[in-house]
Structure formats: structure tokens, C-alpha cells
């Protein structure tokens, strides 16, 4: 499972005893979960009033922070396209996968100085997440424009011979070039009309060079033929060809323009791939925010990260409730929809211990 429970409980005589008690109850005898100590530094707590006020502010921003993280994950899924199943392994925090980062979490002292108040640290994180959100919007817009331009070029190089680009089909040797009098034209002929074309192309107008036609390319329905004639006969030839259900393509061989199109296609494809390597540090702000949001009095507590065994989630809940029921006897009867000042219970069940779910699977793939 990529789901973790961040649990915090008051220390016994020592925090180590709290940890040992948890291990005995959930791991040593019944394999309910895999547990990790979760290192949280001594932050400047302040008074209970300050904590309650800060909790109200942070509750408003909590969904925003999580929403930005999920938008980043969705952005990477869009960029990966056909490899969407590899999104999870490419979502990185500080250069490692999210599960590793969560289980080995260390507070970033340089980025979030613990000498600052909790309010100041929350503002630092909030500003950084807002900046990530703005950057994401800009990058997503640039990516969509890039993707749209590339799709337009790809459409030009696909489809029917009547409409598609011919630059990747024809070669220089297919044309009479640099002639004052002669020109090579390209004609789309239905496959059912090949025989008719061969019989009549020389007589569609005057000044068609005999035996000058060649089949250059075929798709499912048609063939692309070249034919050489005198320039003064172009309009008459085009008109007679249309009468015989042959379509003359408006095409002039220009090697410089054709190379420019190919280079543009290569550039767009390369730029599109570059989008894949972006956004590998976003998870750090999210987890620091989660820690900050769950920090409070008393300071003598042990934070523990539990990775539940999927088959034993219900049993694990029962064991934790039994282990910590003495902390709050009302926990079993509190309704999560109740509005209790200082407690943000929306969308979450209430337990006698501090609990927060961290799900590293930021996208659900069917």
C-alpha cells in the first residue's frame, strides 16, 4: 500500500516507551502495519490560543495545498500520455520516490528554520505552494500550446493524399527543377482510376511530356503521381484533370521550407519531452505542511508513521483505539460532522490520538 497513517501520541515516561508500546501492539505479534519513527524537530509552539487560531487558518489552506500537489501529479500524467502508468515512479521529492521520502523524512532546516514561529513557517510554505500553483498554470498553458502546435503538424503529415503534407513523401529527384519552361506537377489519382490516368494523362492538355508520369506514393484509397509539362499549360491541365476526377495538388518543391517544417517538428517533439523532467520537488512542501498542521501541545509526544497492512486495516483501528482510549473517552461518540471550536473535523473521523492520512498514490489509475 502507498497509504500511511501519521500518528502522534503523548510520551510515556519517555518517547521511546511510546514507540515500543506501539510496536508491540501493531507489529511484533500480529503484523498489522509496518512502522517508522517520524522525526519532527522542536518547533516554537507558543500558547494554546495561538495554536487554535493557527489551526483555523491552516484548515482553510489544507485542501489548497493538497489540491496543488494533485494538480502537479495530473500534469505529469498528461505529459507522460501513453506512459501514464509510470507517473507514480516519476513523482519525486528531493530526488527520491514519495514512499522513500515519507518514510525517511527529515525536516529541512534551511528551507523552514525552526527558530521561526509556526505562523511564519506556515506562511513560508503557503507562499511557496502558491508560487508552485502559478508556475504550474504557466507551464500547463505552455505545454498545451506546444501539444496543440505539434498535433497540427502531425495532422499535416497524416490523412488523405488530398490534404496531407507531401514533404516527407517526395524527393528532389522526382522533380524537374530550375527550368524556365518545364514544371513537375503532382496529381492524386483514385486507385480505381490508375488505368484511365495512364491512358489519358498525356492528352489532358497540350505540352505534356510523354512518358513523364511516375507513381510516387500510395495510401489506402489513392496514388500520388508526378507528371511534367510546359508551364504555359498548367491552367488547362489542372482544369482537364479535374474534369476526369484527378486532383492536382498545389505543391512546389522547396527544400529550405521542407527542412524548416521537419526541424520544427523535431523541436516541438524535443520541447514536449523536456516537460517530463519538471516538477520533482513538489512533495517536500506538502509533507512539511502536513507535519506543521498536526503540530501542537503537549510537546512531549512521539510521532509515528504506520503503513497499514491492507487486509488488517479494521483490526489496526481497533488496536489503536484500545491503546489510546484513555486519552479521550469521548472519542468513540464524537460525530465528525459536529462543529467544535478549534477542531477541524470536516471530512475526517475523530480518534483519541492525532491522526493524518498520507496517500502517496496521488492519482487513481483504472
TrEMBL record:
GO cellular component, one term: vacuolar proton-transporting V-type ATPase, V1 domain
UniProt GO MF annotations: proton-transporting ATPase activity, rotational mechanism
SUPFAM superfamilies in alphabetical order: Vacuolar ATP synthase subunit C (SSF118203)
Pfam families membership: V-ATPase_C (PF03223)
Keywords, alphabetical: Acetylation, Hydrogen ion transport, Ion transport, Transport
InterPro entries: ATPase_V1-cplx_csu (IPR004907), Vac_ATP_synth_c_sf (IPR036132)
Lineage: superkingdom: Eukaryota
Function of the molecule: Subunit of the V1 complex of vacuolar(H+)-ATPase (V-ATPase), a multisubunit enzyme composed of a peripheral complex (V1) that hydrolyzes ATP and a membrane integral complex (V0) that translocates protons. V-ATPase is responsible for acidifying and maintaining the pH of intracellular compartments and in some cell types, is targeted to the plasma membrane, where it is responsible for acidifying the extracellular environment. Subunit C is necessary for the assembly of the catalytic sector of the enzyme and is likely to have a specific function in its catalytic activity.
Membership in a protein family: Belongs to the V-ATPase C subunit family.
Subunit composition and interactions: V-ATPase is a heteromultimeric enzyme made up of two complexes: the ATP-hydrolytic V1 complex and the proton translocation V0 complex. The V1 complex consists of three catalytic AB heterodimers that form a heterohexamer, three peripheral stalks each consisting of EG heterodimers, one central rotor including subunits D and F, and the regulatory subunits C and H. The proton translocation complex V0 consists of the proton transport subunit a, a ring of proteolipid subunits c9c'', rotary subunit d, subunits e and f, and two accessory subunits.
Name of protein: V-type proton ATPase subunit C
Amino acid at each position: 500500500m502507498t497509504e500511511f497513517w501519521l500518528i502522534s501520541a503523548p510520551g510515556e515516561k519517555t518517547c521511546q516507551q511510546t514507540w515500543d508500546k506501539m510496536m508491540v501492539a501493531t507489529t511484533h505479534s500480529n503484523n498489522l502495519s509496518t512502522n517508522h519513527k517520524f522525526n519532527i524537530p522542536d518547533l516554537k509552539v507558543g500558547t494554546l490560543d495561538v495554536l487554535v487560531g493557527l489551526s483555523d487558518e491552516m484548515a482553510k489552506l489544507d485542501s489548497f495545498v493538497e489540491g496543488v500537489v494533485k494538480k502537479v501529479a495530473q500534469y505529469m500524467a498528461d505529459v507522460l500520455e501513453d506512459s501514464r502508468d509510470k507517473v507514480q515512479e516519476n513523482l519525486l521529492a528531493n530526488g527520491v520516490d514519495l514512499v522513500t521520502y515519507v518514510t525517511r523524512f527529515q525536516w529541512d532546516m534551511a528551507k523552514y528554520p525552526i527558530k521561526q514561529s509556526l505562523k511564519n513557517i506556515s506562511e513560508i510554505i503557503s507562499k511557496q505552494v502558491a508560487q508552485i500553483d502559478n508556475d504550474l498554470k504557466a507551464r500547463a498553458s505552455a505545454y498545451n500550446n506546444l501539444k496543440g502546435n505539434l498535433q497540427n503538424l502531425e495532422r499535416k503529415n497524416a490523412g488523405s493524399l488530398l490534404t496531407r503534407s507531401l514533404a516527407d513523401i517526395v524527393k528532389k529527384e522526382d522533380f524537374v527543377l530550375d527550368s524556365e519552361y518545364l514544371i513537375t506537377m503532382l496529381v492524386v489519382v483514385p486507385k480505381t482510376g490508375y488505368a484511365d490516368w495512364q491512358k489519358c494523362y498525356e492528352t489532358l492538355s497540350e505540352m505534356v511530356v510523354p512518358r513523364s508520369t511516375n507513381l510516387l506514393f500510395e495510401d489506402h484509397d489513392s496514388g500520388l503521381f508526378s507528371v511534367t509539362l510546359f508551364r504555359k499549360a498548367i491552367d488547362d491541365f489542372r482544369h482537364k484533370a479535374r474534369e476526369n476526377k484527378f486532383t492536382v495538388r498545389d505543391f512546389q518543391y522547396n527544400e529550405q521550407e521542407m527542412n524548416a517544417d521537419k526541424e520544427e517538428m523535431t523541436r516541438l517533439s524535443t520541447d514536449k519531452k523536456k516537460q517530463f523532467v519538471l516538477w520533482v520537488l513538489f512533495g517536500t512542501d506538502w509533507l512539511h505542511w502536513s507535519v506543521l498542521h498536526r503540530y501542537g501541545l503537549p510537546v512531549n509526544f512521539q510521532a509515528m508513521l504506520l503503513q497499514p497492512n491492507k487486509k488488517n486495516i479494521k483490526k489496526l483501528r481497533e488496536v489503536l483505539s484500545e491503546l489510546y482510549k484513555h486519552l479521550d473517552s469521548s472519542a468513540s461518540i464524537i460525530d465528525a460532522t459536529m462543529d467544535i471550536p478549534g477542531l477541524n473535523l470536516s471530512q475526517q473521523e475523530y480518534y483519541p490520538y492525532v491522526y493524518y492520512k498520507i496517500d502517496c498514490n496521488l492519482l487513481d489509475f483504472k
